[in-house]
Each structure stands twice: as structure tokens, then as C-alpha cells.
Write a structure and sequence with these properties.
The complex is a heterodimer.
Chain A: H1 47-51, H2 73-98, H3 112-121, E1 127-129, H4 135-140, H5 145-152, H6 186-199, E2 206-211, H7 218-230, E3 234-240, E4 243-244, E5 247-248, H8 250-253, H9 261-264, E6 270-274, H10 278-293, E7 299-304, H11 325-328, H12 334-344, H13 350-373, H14 398-407
Parallel strand pairs in A: 1-2, 2-3, 3-7, 6-7
Antiparallel strand pairs in A: 4-5
Helix pairs in contact in A: 2-3, 2-12, 2-13, 3-10, 5-13, 6-7
Chain B: E1 2-3, H1 6-20, E2 24-28, H2 44-48, E3 53-55, H3 60-72, E4 76-80, H4 91-98, H5 101-104, E5 114-119, H6 134-138, E6 144-146, H7 151-163, E7 168-173, E8 199-200, E9 213-216, E10 221-225, H8 228-240, E11 244-248, E12 251-253, H9 257-267, E13 270-277, H10 282-294, E14 303-307, H11 317-320, H12 324-336
Parallel strand pairs in B: 2-3, 2-4, 4-5, 5-7, 6-7, 10-11, 10-13, 13-14
Antiparallel strand pairs in B: 1-8, 6-12, 9-11
The structure holds thiamine diphosphate (TPP) and magnesium ion.
């Protein structure tokens, strides 16, 4: 029997299914207010930023303040396109998963700016260690969509030979590390890579992403310790999308006033950013990359956003949060906001937007047709069965030779 | 040639590797300025600079992860875990990451890493400085486990490991850092100075990974072991007068099944031995494979010598450690069976 008075505090989200979500008492710093410190700043200069909110797009969709990256309209349209493509792709892949074309899928709906704006602010030669929810990076870096799909449907052209769950991409050519299913492991690895780049006298910056829930893992703290100690050129992105499957972010955050604030204890400049504001994510990433490249070390960015879709195709959020939360989210939708900004600049309009959506939709449909022609997980062809014995180590020893014989392939 | 103990031989291997390849670097807790609590990295920071041999924070997971990132970037990191007993915080980075990155990226990223760690019992280290956790790692596809038993092999195997393109867990039997050990707690300390394997070339050479060595030829029984127990087995053969053939495995994964089965088919009897607790220890794998490959040549059941299924005790270390008498008893019992 549950006791009426819990004997210790177990944090709970404000709203559960059936509640009317109302975020009006979430006090968020208005866009344009936060100052932009110099890239050689210390953690002390970001104490307010760690609990504030860096934003550049205001409620009227105007670019304001010191964090406005002043991007030209072509760049903004490019960002919009990558974000829309990410969303269209996610929608399509989710549907195809429901039709049994792949085993599993994870959308990034509502968080597209986090990956797309960051990837655009970085150089293509910069290294990324993402989690499973930054597919936007791949679109921003121009990865072939058919190749991405071939991976997701685990067919004969999957560049990972069917070894990884869908969305756990690897693309060495695009400086995109192998995505792990083990949460947080990529954070300290990114520091090792960044140190390697310094060691080789390269000016490459390394960026990594984890979720709010994953900040509770030891690897988060190990990574910050390493980066602080060795002053590594790395950008730590914490995507606070409010949820870790069914667990609200307060379970990882505890009594800390934000997730960004955790970086201050390691002596790292730490900034909370409006993750649904394309301009702010771009500006903050660029600032952190410039800092890293100039030898000032690591930065922690908390990207404040909302996971608008289910955690994955295996999840149903209606069991733990109100349906309307995503639409009530005070920071809006990143695509809508950038679109309205461009419309305000008279550099975009509804017709062009619809036409772009239709075009990208066609592209995704057409790409899937081609991908499917190389096989699907369900119907094959897959990578050849003997390939399961390849790439374990550089050489194949007697054990695998015998085991392959046992399997009869 | 020079006379070296195992610490000097390992240090020499690192020195040669760092001299030859600017991508080799080493780090660990106390491994930089001071040169490691066992002094295996002594002098390397001074010789090669702060960024090639340095102190790491006390976070084994982060140490392993740093190696993962560096190796993916194309370096050849040699990470030290201060004691094998403290490798567990790093186990996720080793087991889920390092070992699988080649496989899960289909060869796009590789992991040329050596994780070195002082290992094993016999030094009155109690339960947190005596463990033999090799079986946790021999169970993992994608990593190799190497355990030398003398200075010559230690240097040659460490150089081969650093040059390997796959991750290697390199366990160093700390009881024999300074001299071989015959398995008798109260025996006189021995030194490597008069041992043939204490003669170590100063320059570069490698000892084959994946190759075991018959270190004593014999006809009565085959003893398969590695690390400190190689010397215990040799001493037991001399003392008992039983003509044992002793195989030093050196590389546990993949182990050299050919050398083992050639020997067992010749002697018809076999003892497999390790220090770790008996259940699921590496000797279980050896026994299973040997009976599969050599069943029709066996004249007696395969005998296992291992630590007990208890944590490693402090005061009663010598009732736990598989010493000389246990080997003699096993050799007698296995050779007496008709
Ligand atoms: C080490 C580890 N523990 C648990 C899991 C299972 N798991 C997968 S995703 C997830 C939630 C992660 O939430 P968060 O870090 O906020 O990232 P998000 O999914 O919101 O992007 C959990 C618990 C895992 N993959 N790895
Ligand atoms: Mg989350």
C-alpha cells in the first residue's frame, strides 16, 4: 500500500495525462536579453547564462540582441530546408516502421534546430559524436538519403551490414561517429577525439550530444572532468527535451536550477539556449566552436526544447504526459519560428513553403523506392550471412572460422 | 641484450614504441610525472613530453573513453588502469564501445588501444589488489587478452599489442614483476637476473600474439596456464619429478588451440590452471575446448586448478592462491588415473 506521505521526495512532472498543461509560470528569459561574452571568457562570465536562456528570435519572429548570428537569407532558407527534410523523413520512416518495413524508429520532431543549426554552424570537417536523435546533422551535411534509408531498413546496401538498430548511423566520411545505444558513452569519447585533433595539430573541433536524462550518467561527469583538465576543443550539447522516455527531466536534474549549471562546477562556460530558436542554436554553437578553435577549451550548451513525438516507435507517451503538452510548449516549434522569421523578412511565403514540403516529400518517397529496391529487413536481400563474422577484429581467428563452419555458411 | 626485470622490460617496450611512432602515447592514474605506482611508465614524460605521457583523473571509465576517442582519431593510446581490480568502472567503455566499434561501424572506425593493468595475486594485496578478472574480457568478442609471464615476452608482447589494430587488454602479473615465483609463500625471493627470459634486447622486437609456447617439454601430462602460474607449474614439475609438459598461453583470446591440442594428444592428460575463482574462469573454456578437440586421446579427466569461489582473502592468501603443492597433487592424481 502506498503511504500518503512519501518518506523522501521523488520529483514529479507538473502535468500528467488528463491535466491541462499550462507553462505560464515557467520563467524564461526573453530573446535578445542575454549578453554575449567574449570567446575567451571564463565560467564566471556565464553564471547568468547557465540559468538564463540565450535567444535571438523574439515573439514577433524578429532577430534581436547580441546573439543574432546575422545570417543571410540563403543560409536561413537552407536551414529551413534541412529542418523540413528532417521532419518529412522522420514522418515517412515512422509510417514505414508501422508497415513493418523496419524494426524500430526514433523521430526528432520538435528538436530539428538542435541538430541542423549546430551542424551548419560547425565546419563539415568538425567531428560529431551524436546520440540517436540528431539525424538533422546528416541532412545538413548532405548525406545521401537513400544510404540513410538502406541503413534503417537493414538491407543489402546498409553501410553497417545490418549490425545496428535503425537510426544508429555511422558515416566516417561525413565526420559522423558511430552511434552507440549505450547512453552517454560518446561524451568522454568526444574529448579523446578532440585531444587527438590537438595532438595532431589540427584545428578540428569536436561536438557531442546527449539527452537530459543522460546527464545523470557517470560518463557525463567524466567527460566534463577530462575536457576541463585537458582544455579540449569540444562542445558538449545537452538536449533538454524535457523527457527521457517516460521520465521527466527533473529526475536527472534534481535540485539543480538547470542542467547547464552543472558545467560551471567543472569550470566550463555553460549556457542554456532556446533549442527551438534556429538563430540562437546557430549563434551559440558558432561561439562555442570559435572558443574551442582558439584554444580556450570546452563549452557546455543546454538546448532547451521539447520532444514532441514519442520516445521511439516502441513508446506511447499518452500513458505519462498530456497530449497537448507539445502544442502548449512556450518555445513553439523550430520550423514554424524560422519560417515566420523568413516570411517577416519577406524572404519566404506560405506557397513556397508548401511547395518545398511537397518537393521534399516526393524526394523522400522516391528515395525510399530506390532504397527498397536494395531490399528490406522483412523481405531481404540483407548483407550476406557470413558477414556476421567479419570486422570483429582485423584478422579472423580459428574460433570464428570454426563457428562459421558450424553455421554452415 | 640487457638484463631486465618485467617492469624494466615493459618500460623499454613503451620507450621503443613511443620513439618509433609519434602516434603512441600513454596515460593513467599516477602514470605521468611519477611514472606509475609500479614505475612502468617511469621517465617517459620527461623523455617524450607532457602530452605523450600524462596523469589522468581517477575515473577509469573516462580513461578508457579517452582512449576510444583518441584511437578512433588515429592515435595508438596505451591506457594504464592502476590495478586490474579497478577496471570495472571502465567496463562499459571497454565491453560496449572499444570492443565493438570496428564491428558496429563495419570497419569505418578502428580501436588500436592497449589497456595495461597490473594483475593477479601473491603480493598480500587483499581483495582489491589481487584479482584476476581476465575471464570478464575473454568473454567479449572484439578484444584480445594478453598475459605475459617473463620480461622477454612482456616487452615483445607489449610491442606487438601496441602495433595491433585491435584493442588489447594487457594484464601484467605483478607478483613476477621483479622475479619468477615458484608458488611457495615462504620460499626465497627470486630475481630475473639469472633467468634466460630476463635477457631482453634493448631495441625493437615483437613476440607473436596468438601463439602459446611449450616452456617445458614432457610426456606425462600437459599443464596449460599463463602468468604467474607458469612458474608455479614449472617448479611443481621439477619438485615432483613428474615429466609434465608446461604450456604458457601468453594470449588468451584467441588462444593457440593447435599448440595445446598437439601437446594433449601426445601426453593424453591435461591440467588447466588459473588464479581466478574457479566457476566460469578461463580454465573452464580451455577444458571445454580441449575435451572437444582431444577427447579420444584423453586417458584421464581434465583437471582444473583455480582460486576458490570466494573473494580473494587477505590473511589466508596462501590457502587461496594455487601454490606449488596444489600443482603437485594435481599432477599426481591426473597421472595416476589409469
Ligand atoms: C546506459 C543506458 N541505459 C538505459 C538505456 C535505455 N534508454 C534508451 S533511451 C533512454 C532515455 C534517454 O533520455 P534522454 O537522455 O533524455 O534522451 P532523449 O531520448 O530524450 O533524446 C533510456 C533510459 C540505454 N540505452 N543506455
Ligand atoms: Mg530527453
Amino acid at each position: 500500500m502506498a503511504t500518503s506521505q512519501p518518506r523522501y521526495r521523488v520529483p514529479a512532472p507538473k502535468f500528467r495525462p488528463g491535466d491541462e498543461p499550462d507553462f505560464s509560470d515557467l520563467k524564461l528569459q526573453p530573446a535578445g536579453e542575454a549578453k554575449r561574452p567574449g570567446i575567451d571568457c571564463s565560467w564566471k562570465d556565464t553564471v547568468d547564462h547557465a540559468t538564463g536562456l540565450v535567444g535571438a528570435l523574439d515573439h514577433n519572429h524578429q532577430a534581436v540582441g547580441e546573439w543574432n548570428p546575422e545570417l543571410d537569407p540563403d543560409t536561413l532558407r537552407e536551414g529551413l530546408r534541412h529542418m523540413v527534410l528532417t521532419r518529412v523523413y522522420d514522418e515517412r520512416m515512422q509510417k514505414l516502421q508501422r508497415q513493418g518495413k523496419m524494426s524500430f524508429y526514433m523521430k526528432s520532431t520538435g528538436e530539428e534546430a538542435v541538430s541542423v543549426a549546430a551542424a551548419m554552424a560547425l565546419r563539415d570537417s568538425d567531428m560529431v559524436f551524436p546520440s540517436y536523435r540528431q539525424q538533422g546533422i546528416l541532412f545538413a551535411r548532405g548525406r545521401d538519403i537513400v544510404d540513410m534509408m538502406c541503413h534503417c531498413i537493414s538491407n543489402s546496401r546498409d553501410n553497417l551490414k545490418g549490425r545496428q538498430l535503425p537510426v544508429h548511423y555511422t558515416w566516417a566520411e561525413g565526420n559522423f561517429f558511430s552511434i552507440s545505444g549505450n547512453l552517454g558513452t560518446q561524451f568522454p569519447q568526444a574529448v579523446g577525439w578532440a585531444m587527438g585533433a590537438r595532438y595532431k595539430n589540427e584545428d578540428q573541433v569536436t561536438a557531442s550530444w546527449i539527452g537530459d536524462g543522460t546527464t545523470a550518467e557517470g560518463d557525463f561527469h567524466g567527460a566534463l572532468t577530462l575536457a576541463s583538465t585537458y582544455r579540449a576543443p569540444v562542445i558538449f550539447n545537452v538536449v533538454n527535451n524535457q523527457w527521457a522516455i517516460s521520465t521527466f527531466q527533473g529526475i536527472a536534474q534534481g535540485d539543480a536550477p538547470s542542467l547547464a549549471v552543472k558545467g560551471l562546477g567543472y569550470g566550463l562556460p555553460s549556457i542554456r539556449v532556446d533549442g527551438n530558436d534556429f538563430l540562437a542554436v546557430y549563434a551559440a554553437t558558432k561561439w562555442a566552436a570559435d572558443r574551442a578553435r582558439a584554444g580556450h577549451g570546452a563549452t557546455l550548451l543546454e538546448l532547451y526544447t521539447y520532444r514532441a513525438a514519442a520516445h521511439s516507435t516502441s513508446d506511447d507517451p499518452s500513458g505519462y504526459r498530456p497530449k497537448e503538452e507539445a502544442t502548449k510548449w512556450p518555445l513553439g516549434d523550430p520550423i514554424e519560428r524560422l519560417k515566420n522569421h523568413l516570411i517577416g523578412l519577406e524572404e519566404w511565403d506560405e506557397q513556397r513553403h508548401e511547395a518545398m514540403e511537397a518537393e521534399l516529400n516526393d524526394l523522400v518517397v522516391k528515395s525510399y523506392k530506390e532504397a527498397e529496391s536494395y531490399g528490406t529487413l522483412h523481405d531481404g536481400p540483407l548483407s550476406p550471412v557470413p558477414s556476421i563474422f567479419e570486422d570483429v577484429t582485423a584478422d579472423t581467428d580459428w574460433r570464428l572460422i570454426r563457428q562459421r563452419q558450424d553455421l554452415g555458411v | 641484450m640487457a638484463k631486465m626485470n618485467m617492469i624494466q622490460a615493459l618500460n623499454s617496450a613503451l620507450d621503443v614504441a613511443m620513439e618509433n611512432d609519434p602516434n603512441v602515447l600513454c596515460f593513467g592514474e599516477d602514470a605521468g610525472y611519477f611514472g606509475g605506482v609500479f614505475r612502468v611508465t617511469a621517465g617517459l614524460q620527461k623523455k617524450y613530453g607532457l602530452d605523450r605521457c600524462f596523469d589522468a583523473p581517477i575515473n577509469e571509465a573516462a580513461i578508457a573513453a579517452m582512449a576510444v576517442g583518441m584511437a578512433a582519431k588515429g592515435l595508438r593510446p596505451v591506457a594504464e588502469i592502476q590495478f586490474a581490480d579497478y577496471i570495472f568502472p571502465a567496463i562499459d567503455q571497454i565491453v560496449s564501445e572499444m570492443s565493438r566499434i570496428r564491428y558496429r561501424s563495419a570497419g569505418q572506425f578502428t580501436q588500436p588501444i592497449v589497456v595495461r593493468s597490473p594483475w593477479g595475486g601473491g603480493i598480500r594485496g587483499g581483495q582489491t589488489h589481487s584479482m584476476s578478472p581476465e575471464a570478464f574480457f575473454t568473454h567479449v568478442p572484439g578484444i584480445k587478452v594478453v598475459i605475459p609471464s617473463n620480461p622477454y615476452d612482456a616487452k615483445g608482447l607489449l610491442l606487438a599489442s601496441i602495433e595491433s589494430d585491435d584493442p588489447i587488454i594487457f594484464f601484467e602479473p605483478k607478483r613476477i614483476y621483479n622475479g619468477p615465483f615458484d608458488g611457495q609463500a615462504d620460499g626465497a625471493l627470486q630475481s630475473w637476473a639469472n633467468h634466460p627470459k630476463g635477457e631482453v634486447p634493448e631495441g625493437h622486437y615483437t613476440v607473436d600474439l596468438n601463439k602459446a609456447e611449450v616452456v617445458r617439454e614432457g610426456s606425462a601430462v600437459t599443464v596449460v596456464t599463463y602468468g604467474t602460474l607458469v612458474h608455479v607449474a614449472l617448479a611443481a614439475a621439477e619438485k615432483s619429478g613428474i615429466d609434465a609438459e608446461v604450456i604458457d598461453l601468453k594470449t588468451l583470446t584467441p588462444y593457440d588451440i593447435e599448440t595445446i591440442s598437439d601437446s594433449v594428444k601426445k601426453t593424453g592428460r591435461c591440467i588447466v590452471a588459473n588464479e581466478a575463482p574457479r566457476t566460469s574462469s578461463f580454465s573452464a573454456e580451455l577444458a571445454a575446448q580441449i575435451q572437444e578437440d582431444c577427447f579420444w586421446s584423453l586417458e584421464a579427466p581434465i583437471h582444473r586448478i583455480a582460486g576458490w569461489d570466494t573473494p580473494y582473502p587477505h590473511a589466508h592468501e596462501w590457502s587461496y592462491f594455487p601454490g606449488q603443492q596444489r600443482f603437485i597433487n594435481a599432477m599426481k592424481s591426473v597421472t595416476e588415473t589409469v
